[in-house]
Amino acid sequence: MNQTLEETIIAVSTPAGHGGIGIVRLSGPEALTIARKIFSLKEPEQGLPTQKMCFGYLMDDVSQETLDAGYLCYFPPSHSYTREEVVEIHLHGSPVLLNEAVRLGIRAGARLAHPGEFTLRAYLNGRIDIIQAEAINDLIRACSLDQARISFKQMEGSLSRKIAVVREKIVELLTLVETSLEFPDEEPEINSAQIRDVLRELIGDLDNLVKSYEQGRALLEGLTVAILGKTNVGKSTLFNALLEEERAIVTPYPGTTRDFIRENILVDGVLMKLVDMAGFGQASHPAEKEGIARGQQLAEKADGLLVVLDASREESSEDFLLLKRFGHKKKLLVFNKSDLKPVINRQKILDSSPGAGWVEVSALTGKNLGRLKKMMLETFSPQLEKQEEVILHQRQKVLVESLKNNLENGLRILDEGAGEELVAEAIREALPAIGQLTGEIRSQEILNQIFSRFCIGK
Question: What CATH number does the domain located at 140-217+393-439 have?
Answer without folding.
Answer: 1.20.120.430
